[in-house]
Design goal:
CATH superfamily of the largest domain: Ribonuclease Z/Hydroxyacylglutathione hydrolase-like
Radius of gyration: 21 Å
Oligomer: single chain
Number of helices: 10
Largest sheet: 6 strands, mixed
CATH architecture of the largest domain: 4-Layer Sandwich
Order of helices and strands: EEEEHHEHHEEEEEEHEHEHHEHEH
Length: 328
């Protein structure tokens, strides 16, 4: 195997697996920053597997599909649906000149949907397995008689409101493990403790007639926050208040709802049997005006992109509130 990005860094994940005359590329991402960094691979194999829709694992695809080409791009259905949203937004803000419609058409024509657990023979045999990261995210198990290879990609060992944890029990001789939180000091609070802290912060803010601005990533984190707040309001832990969602969070929320069969069983059961659909919460609203005046004036809680405060609607809210409060 060869690393063309994603080793000793966060971003531009790109790993090639060689098996005799055949090869498989696992992920094709971009390192987003003031100066974008791309995978260093020169000759791209005919088969690529994308583990999930986040840009650091998939954003170099539009560069590849500027022109028509015969390259199979394997992924789960939710990843296929989400990647259209993410790639379209990436091309819109990119300094590169893309023919957005043509690029997406070329990419979608070459997408191959893979179900969890199904073995694909693309010269290199592999299967995809739930990684617990975001909807549709997958670890890649490369099958080989001499010993399997497991590429975890981004994964979570915890259950969330939406996802089951990473699939356990996979057998491999070699493992490539994502290690963003792998340090000795990277001890995250429990999900229960995170929930308690969120409830405490929201209640404290609303009690003072304040407003809460929550910067969030569009895919994964944003939907998790919506479901958490809806649950706490329905359960009486938080006083009901208008929640406004902005940026791509709304569109991604619709995709999560459409592909809910890939979410945890408890969430599916809640929607299909108990008629409680947190994706259609009565507390959640979307700004109706371009200047976001309704959300700025009415929103007690606003969840918006970007998660790193480097762009997106979050800056509009910050500037507006700063101007009203007279703060620098």
């Amino acid at each position: 195997m060869k690393f063309f990005g994603g080793a000793d860094e966060v971003g531009r994940s790109c790993i090639e697996v060689l098996d005799g005359r055949h090869s498989l590329l696992m992920d094709y991402g971009v390192k987003i920053g003031a100066q974008e960094e791309y995978p260093t691979i020169k000759k791209v194999p005919k088969n690529i597997v994308i583990t999930h829709a986040h840009l650091d694992h998939a954003a170099y695809l539009p560069h590849l599909f500027r022109k028509e080409r015969k390259t199979n791009v394997y992924m789960t259905k939710p990843t296929r649906d989400l990647i259209q949203l993410m790639i379209a937004d990436y091309m819109k803000v990119s300094r590169n000149n893309f023919d957005n419609g043509k690029v997406l058409e070329n990419l979608m024509r070459n997408c191959r949907i893979v179900d969890y657990g199904a073995v694909v023979d693309a010269g290199v045999k592999f299967s995809l397995h739930n990684s617990g990261h975001i909807l549709g995210s997958a670890s890649v198990l490369v099958h080989n008689p001499k010993g399997n290879l497991l590429y975890t990609s981004d994964f979570s060992t915890r259950s969330s409101r939406i996802m089951d944890p990473v699939e356990m029990g996979l057998s491999a001789r070699t493992a490539i493990v994502e290690s963003t939180y792998g340090g000795k000091d990277s001890i995250l609070p429990s999900s229960k403790e995170i929930g308690k802290q969120l409830v405490k912060i929201v209640n404290s803010t609303l009690k003072k007639n304040g407003r809460l601005l929550i910067p969030s990533f569009a895919v994964g984190r944003g939907q998790e926050l919506v479901l958490m707040l809806d649950s706490y309001m329905r359960g009486g832990l938080i006083e009901p208040a208008p929640i406004y969602i902005d940026g791509m969070i709304k569109k991604a929320l619709h995709i999560f709802r459409h592909d809910v069969i890939y979410a945890k069983k408890e969430l599916q059961h809640s929607i299909l049997v108990s008629d409680v659909d947190p994706f259609k919460s009565r507390y959640v609203f979307v700004p109706q005006s371009r200047d976001r005046k309704d959300a700025i004036e009415e929103g007690s809680i606003i969840i918006t992109t970007s998660g790193m405060l480097k762009g997106g609607p979050v800056l509009t809210y910050l500037k507006s509130w700063q101007a009203r409060e007279g703060t620098p």
